[in-house]
Amino acid sequence: MYIHSLAGEVVIASESLEKFYYFMSIALYGDEFSIPLIDRCHAIIIAIRIMLGSESLDFDLDPRGTLPSEIERGLGILVRHQMQFTFGHEYAHLLCKHIPSPQSIAKKKQPDVHSAHLKDIRIFSYEMEYEADLYALRNIQKKDKVYSQISQGAFSVLLYLNFLEKTLDELGLKKFSISMTHPSPLDRIKNLQRRLGKKVFVSERQLEFYLNILEEMKDTFIYQVKDNKNDVLTSYGSVYLPSYKSKIKQDRYDF
User: Fold this and answer.
1) How far is Cα of residue 128 from the mean position of the Cα atoms in its chain?
2) How far apart are CA 212 and CA 91, in angstroms?
3) Which residues pair with 213 in a beta bridge?
4) Which of 35, 87, 92, 95 would give a disulfide with 30, using CB separation of 3.0 to 4.6 Å?
5) 3 state DSSP class of 1
6) Could you tell me the CA-to-CA distances from 47 to 23, 55, 205 in Å, in that order?
7) What are the pLDDT digits (tens) for 111-149?
C-alpha cells in the first residue's frame, strides 16, 4: 500500500506478500521447472495459508523445502519482477496523485456504506487502480527485456489475485478488503491488454492457457481441503514441499 505518514509518503510491501508470490510461482510455473505436481499442490496450500494468516512466517528458520539452486534462481527472478510491478503500482498512485492530502481527508466525512454515492466512489477507485497498473508498465525506463520481465510479473500477480479471489469465494471464506475498492484481477488484465495495444505482454491464448492451469489447481486444492479431516486452512503451523524436505523439524525441539 501507499500511505501518508508523519515522515512523508511511504510505500509498503509485506514480506509475507513476497512469500505468497514465491509459492504461487511454484504452483503456476512449476511444470516449466519440472517440479512434481504434489509439490505444486502443497505450494498452493502454503500460499493460501499465508494470506489467511495461519502459516507460520518462519521461512528463514524453517524453509518449506530446499529446491535445486538453478530452480531457486529461476523462481527468484520471477518473484523479483512480481515485486517490482507491485512497488511500481504503488509508486504510480503517488505519481498520479491518487491519494488526497491529510488535510483534505480531515475535511471530508467518510461515506456511509448505504450512501447513494458509494457506487460512484468505487468506480472512481477502480479507475485509479487501472491507471496505476498502466502507469507502472508504461514508465519502465529500460526497454525490451526489462519491460517484458516486469510485464510478465504484472500478469503473474494479477493471475494470483484472481486465483485467490475465486478460491476463497468457492470455499465460502471472506474476501479481502481490497475487493471493495479494486476491480477484479481479471478485469485489470483485460484492461492492460486493451490499453497497451502493440506493447501487450500476453496474448489471449497465453492468458487462457495459464487460467486453465490455475483452474485445475484450484479444483485440486478445493478437493484436498474438503477431503482432509483436519482444518488444513486455519490450523496454525507449517506445510512443506514433500519432494524437497527430507526431515520435518519439531518446533522448540529441533530448532
Assistant:
1) 19
2) 32
3) none
4) 35
5) coil
6) 6, 8, 26
7) 555 555 445 445 558 888 999 999 999 888 767 788 889
Q: Phi/psi of residue 84, each to 5°?
A: -60, -40
- pLDDT tens figures, 189-211: 999 998 888 888 888 888 899 99
User: How many secondary structure helices (H) and strands (E) does the chain include?
Assistant: 8, 2
The SS3 assignment for 239 reads coil
Amino acid letter, residue 113 = V
What angle is formed at CA 78 by the lines to CA 72 and CA 83, rounded to 5 degrees?
A: 120
Query: pLDDT tens-digit profile of 27-45?
Result: 999 999 999 999 999 999 9
Q: Please name the helix (run of DSSP H) or strand (run of DSSP E) that holds residue 145, with its range, or none.
A: helix 145-170
- Mean pLDDT, residues 46-65 taken together: 91
Beta bridge partners of 8: 5
Please tell me the pTM assigned to this model: 0.84
| CB neighbourhood size of 67 (10 A) | 20
Whole-number Å distance between alpha carbons of 82 and 51: 16
Average pLDDT over residues 42-55: 92
| Residue pair 214/28 in contact by the 8 Å Cβ criterion | yes
CA–CA gap between residue 55 and residue 63 (Å, rounded): 12
Kindly report the length of the chain. Answer: 255
Q: Cα–Cα distance between 110 and 108 in angstroms, integer?
A: 6
pLDDT of amino acid 6:
82
Buried b / exposed e over 13-43, threshold 16 CB at 10 Å, is eeeebbbbbbbbbbbbbbeebebeeebbbbb
Q: How far apart are CA 220 and CA 200, in angstroms?
A: 31
* Res. 252: pLDDT tops 80: no
**φ, ψ of residue 5 in degrees (nearest 5):** -145, 175
